Amino acid sequence: MYADPQTVTVNAVDQSLVRTGMAIDAGRFGKSDGSYTFAISHSSGRRNQHRARLDSNKIIVDPYASERNLPVSASVYVVLDVPTVGFTVGEQEDLLVALADWLKASSHAAQLAASES
Known about the structure:
Elements: E1 6-10, E2 13-23, E3 26-30, E4 36-43, E5 47-61, E6 69-83, H1 89-104, H2 108-113
Antiparallel strand pairs: 1-2, 2-3, 3-4, 4-5, 5-6
């Protein structure tokens, strides 16, 4: 079980996310104002999937009708999809770390967000 709270750092600011839900294969965390939510979940079958998802929610001025506010959200998530046999936990971790390191390297995250390929 993950610790409560979980902390994510967004734009150099730590966001403390308290546990808001729990199930056998899932956990949810979030800020009381709903600005950030974080979910961990797992499923098994012919393949096992392990998911982590971070959502950002905010209210903006509607660019088409400035007298209205508009709720918007953005999400980023990772899915580790593996067969039931053949990859150790260590090998799975290596894949996750490799992707995280790639995103942190140079400007890869910015290039991804800018639709580069």
